[in-house]
Each structure stands twice: as structure tokens, then as C-alpha cells.
Design brief:
The complex is a heterodimer. Chain A is of the alpha+beta class. In chain A, 14% of the residues lie in helices and 26% in strands. The chains are: A alpha+beta, B mainly beta.
């Protein structure tokens, strides 16, 4: 008797559970534009975030109006508002920390573009010199590069790279000497000057902000050297601080394609 | 006796003739006449600080004869050219430089599949400073503006080279146009460091 009751209860539970519609019953949207198209592309494109990691990892459709992406998205090289497969791991200039929408194993060769957005610690090249001083010189360089997208974006060739450098406890120098910052490439041993660091009051810290319209992907290191103010020799002098640029996972070591390109 | 002294005086006065005849004597005809501020021996460079404020006219750097063609005046109607405005100054320990480059009749980027990179070249040391990259549109017109906090005095030439897109190799490609930066013919000595003002807060400290 008890088994029959349990059996009937089990049957009711099983029939109830099986009546819940499963995913196969929800049709894939068939529209060619708008919400339907976005949904379809997200569900069917194999390299989209939702397809790979599930619906919980979808990016919210925020700030996309009927007029397109806002300036933040355009300036950071994001794909257009009408792309349903924007799937870079992060689109911010700051570390994402424990943000669960950050994909930690994104491969930029899959989709997207090569980008530089790193912070480089600058360390003294010769630590022995500063053993007896209270604090050794040190600094930080922040490198940001936007533009130069690979896949169909409008700012294909409108690069802009920004370098922000701060250094402190630099050894005091005379009036006719300055500290100059450089980006250095190991392969060609080329050092590109970024200009002179400006001292704050009482010469405690030195900063530099530099914009240039080119890619800084090829460069491997940032260095700060000591130069005369009026320098007949534009090559770098004595290196005071040096920092290796860490290659992030959003940065391609080689171009995505060697094929010739077209501009619209 | 008077004749003797007269002859002696004449002989002493004639001695400089030997100096005049020797090759080591530098007469005003041989000594280069210095012009401009170089003539002034106590010149203080803080009056006219070092600066570069010129136009650079860039012409084809490859084998291109612009002056033997069918256009007006014998010029080729389409020839690669460019102009760069270079402004650079150093004053009181502060340096600032701008370069504004505009080009015309370069190969269009969409057709050749490449972009152009501008360089400041110092022929004495062979160092090149990259000013950035730009694309040219139909008609070969492109522009680039560059700002750096450094004095660009040592550079002699501006050169534009052609590079592939997404070029990760920093060696320059073949040059397309280049032009010399005209140097001032007046000599401007460097200011002595002792004469340079020491900074805005020196008097407070």
C-alpha cells in the first residue's frame, strides 16, 4: 500500500517535472534585424560569449540606444552597438578584479583586436648605486593604445597611444640636465623618445604625459635616462630607470593577418 | 747720429713686414667675418633663446623627376610633396616642440595597402625619431601632428616612409618624401648653466 502511494507520488512528480519546457522548445529567433537578430547571432555564433560560457555571461545591453554606441565605446575601440558577438574579455582601462564577466582565457586571435593597456613598474637599472640612500628611484608607466582594430571597425587606422609616467626619488641633477623617457624595442634596439619629465615643486616627483599617433605594440620596455637639456646627440644616455612592458593577453605578438587590407 | 737713430727707428718699424709676409699671419682678408650675434663677445643667450621655427618642404625621395613633364611650367602635374611646420623652443629649462606635416599626391593608402610614417632624422648620429603614422586618402593627402616636450634642434631632416598596416617592425620602410630642416644661419650659443634661472621656487626656499 505504501509503495503504491509512493509510486503514485513519484509518477506525479515526474510528470510535473517533465512538463517544464526545455531549451529545445524555445525556437531560435528568425528575424533579420533588431532584437531578434542579436539574439540569434548570440545563440548561434560559436565564438560568442553566451555560446561558450552560457547565458549567465552575457553582457548587458546597456547604453546602446537606437542611435548607436556612445563615445566611450567608440574611443575604446569597441565593436558597434549592432554586433551581437562583442566578446572581448574586458573593455575598460582599469583592472577588472573579481568581475565575473571578465574572461580570463580570452585569445585575441579569435575575435577582436590587439590592444595595449598595461601598467609598467620602473625599477632602477643599477640598484647598487642606491644602497646607501634612503629610497631608490622608482616609477610607473601607464601605456594605453586605442584604435587600429582588425575587424571592420571604423577607426582602423586612427591610432592613438598615450603614455603616462610618474617617477619619484630621482637623483638630483643640475639645471642643464633633464630626465627623458623612452620606449625601447629589443628586436631592433630602437629607442623612441617620449620627451622630458617635468618636475613638481621641490623636485620630488617627475611626470610625463605623451600622446602619439602610432602603435606602441612593438615596444618592449620603458626607460628613463639622464640627458643634457640641449642635447646634440638625440640617442639615449645613462639609463636610470627601466621597466619591461608585460605582454597582456589582449596583445598580439604578430599581426592577425598578413594579407593586404582595404580601407572603405 | 740723428741719421743712425732715424735708420734704427725705421728698421724697428719695418720688422712687422716679416710677420705680414709669413703664412701664419691672419689678415682681415683671411679671417671670416662673423655676422649676427656671433660678433658680440658678451652675448647672453637668454635674450634670443634657441628655437626652431621654420617650414620644411618635402620632395620625392625616390627617383622622380618633377621638372621634366607635361604639366604647366614643365612640372609634373602629380608629384609627391609635403610641407612640415616645425616649431621647437627651449627656454628656462622648458622645452616644447610641434611638428605639423601635410602631404599631397602620395600613393593613396587604400590603393597600396599601407600607411605612412614620419621621422625626424639626425644625419650626424643616424638616429630617427618616429613622429607617428598616418594614412593618405584619395589624392594622396594626409596629415600628421606631433607634439613632444623636447628640443628638436639636433634633427636635420624630415622623412616620410611607407609601412605596412599593423607593422610590428620598427625599421623604416622605403622613403617616399623627405626634406631638410633649414637651420638658422646665425650662431646661437648655448646659455651658460650658471646664468640659467634655477626655478620658480628657488627664492622661497
Amino acid at each position: 500500500m505504501r509503495f503504491a502511494v509512493l509510486g503514485i507520488i513519484a509518477l506525479i512528480v515526474i510528470l510535473t517535472v517533465s512538463a517544464i519546457p526545455n531549451n529545445a522548445d524555445i525556437p531560435i529567433p528568425a528575424g533579420y534585424s533588431g532584437f531578434d537578430a542579436r539574439e540569434r547571432r548570440i545563440q548561434t555564433t560559436p565564438y560568442s560569449r553566451a555560446f561558450q560560457f552560457g547565458d549567465l555571461y552575457r553582457k548587458d545591453l546597456v547604453t546602446f540606444g537606437s542611435k548607436g554606441p556612445n563615445s566611450r565605446l567608440l574611443l575604446t575601440g569597441a565593436k558597434s552597438a549592432f554586433s551581437g558577438v562583442f566578446n572581448l574579455d574586458t573593455n575598460a582601462f582599469f583592472n577588472q578584479g573579481r568581475n565575473p564577466s571578465r574572461i580570463s582565457n580570452s585569445d585575441p586571435r579569435m575575435r577582436g583586436f590587439s590592444r595595449v593597456d598595461v601598467s609598467v613598474p620602473l625599477e632602477p637599472l643599477n640598484v647598487v648605486l642606491y644602497e646607501n640612500s634612503v629610497a631608490a628611484p622608482r616609477g610607473t608607466a601607464r601605456l594605453v593604445q586605442r584604435g587600429g582594430n582588425e575587424w571592420g571597425s571604423s577607426n582602423l587606422d586612427d591610432f592613438e597611444s598615450q603614455i603616462f609616467i610618474q617617477a619619484t626619488d630621482l637623483p638630483t641633477i643640475g639645471n642643464d640636465e633633464v630626465y627623458e623617457a623612452w620606449l625601447f624595442d629589443d628586436e631592433t634596439e630602437y629607442a623612441m623618445s617620449l620627451g622630458i619629465l617635468e618636475f613638481g615643486s621641490q623636485k620630488l616627483t617627475a611626470t610625463l604625459v605623451f600622446n602619439i599617433q602610432r602603435l606602441i605594440t612593438p615596444f618592449d620596455a620603458v626607460m628613463i635616462t639622464r640627458e643634457p637639456l640641449i642635447d646634440e646627440d638625440p640617442t639615449p644616455g645613462e639609463i636610470i630607470l627601466y621597466g619591461q612592458i608585460p605582454k597582456g593577453r589582449t596583445q598580439l605578438p604578430v599581426p592577425t593577418t598578413y594579407a593586404s587590407r582595404r580601407l572603405r | 747720429m740723428k741719421k743712425f737713430f732715424a735708420l734704427l727707428a725705421f728698421a724697428i718699424l719695418a720688422l712687422p713686414a716679416f710677420a705680414a709676409l709669413s703664412d701664419d699671419y691672419v689678415s682681415p682678408f683671411k679671417f671670416p667675418k662673423r655676422q649676427g650675434v656671433e660678433r658680440v663677445t658678451h652675448y647672453d643667450a637668454r635674450i634670443n633663446a634657441q628655437q626652431v621655427d621654420t617650414f620644411v618642404y618635402l620632395e620625392a625621395a625616390y627617383d622622380f623627376d618633377a621638372l621634366y613633364s607635361s604639366g604647366r611650367g614643365g612640372y609634373a602635374p602629380i608629384f609627391p610633396r609635403g610641407t612640415a611646420r616645425v616649431k621647437s623652443s627651449v627656454w628656462n629649462g622648458a622645452t616644447e616642440s610641434y611638428v605639423l606635416l601635410k602631404t599631397k599626391d602620395l600613393p593613396p593608402s587604400a590603393r597600396v595597402g599601407g600607411l605612412f610614417e614620419a621621422w625626424l632624422v639626425d644625419d650626424d648620429t643616424g638616429y630617427r625619431l618616429s613622429m607617428g603614422t598616418f594614412i593618405t586618402t584619395f589624392g594622396g593627402s594626409g596629415e600628421l601632428s606631433y607634439h613632444i616636450n623636447r628640443y628638436l634642434g639636433p634633427y636635420d631632416r624630415i622623412e616620410v616612409t611607407i609601412e605596412p598596416f599593423n607593422d610590428l617592425d620598427l625599421t623604416p620602410g622605403p622613403p617616399v618624401i623627405s626634406g631638410d630642416i633649414p637651420k638658422s644661419k646665425w650662431f646661437t650659443p648655448h646659455a651658460k648653466s650658471s646664468k640659467l634661472a634655477k626655478g620658480p621656487f628657488e627664492s622661497i626656499n
